[in-house]
């Protein structure tokens, strides 16, 4: 066997090994993404939280039933709900510092909840429009943002029902999310950290529209 042939075989084996390593690295990455998704969904209220950690983020907004004289949320467990999550990711090779997060908090008037996430209240000052979580598990932010370790991004979660129309809440949430991404120089992405497209945003809007129809039907049934 010639030296040239042996060199060709070595290169072929090297390329095959590299592809195999990339395959396993992708599987590990996807598994970690699924684990992170499950954890963030739990934090966002799609799974029960321990009572010691349950905050406004994990339940219906307190003023929601006040205007309709309906029973409390606890007595109506079939209340329709939906979470519409977006993320803001730092650009490739960059991170968000504690100062970046502090700037978001100050500029947009976010309030820190006892559970360690931030919340933006609606104009009525009572109901939560959306919550902001650390993209890294367990989803909370350091008490002292100045000394917080750099992070790859933040997760924004709009929980419906809110105090108003679901579509209007979505539009307001999206507009603020875009402004937040612009302020910190990040990319507006979906739950899987993929940059959102116009088609993605239309899908979100359709979900809000469907929720509003379903919720109105549910509301009418419980007002009889």
TrEMBL record:
The gene is zipA. InterPro entries: Cell_div_ZipA (IPR011919), ZipA_FtsZ-bd_C (IPR007449), ZipA_FtsZ-bd_C_sf (IPR036765). It comes from the Bacteria. The lineage of its organism: Bacteria, Pseudomonadati, Pseudomonadota, Gammaproteobacteria, Cardiobacteriales. Residues 80-208 form the ZipA C-terminal FtsZ-binding domain. It comes from Suttonella indologenes. It is found in: Cell inner membrane. It holds the Pfam family ZipA_C. This is Cell division protein ZipA. The keyword Transferase does not apply. GO terms for biological process: division septum assembly. The keyword Transferase does not apply. Keywords: Cell cycle, Cell division, Cell inner membrane, Cell membrane, Membrane, Transmembrane, Transmembrane helix. Its main location: membrane. Essential cell division protein that stabilizes the FtsZ protofilaments by cross-linking them and that serves as a cytoplasmic membrane anchor for the Z ring. Also required for the recruitment to the septal ring of downstream cell division proteins. It is a single-pass type I membrane protein. Belongs to the ZipA family. Coiled coil: none annotated. GO terms for cellular component: cell division site; plasma membrane.
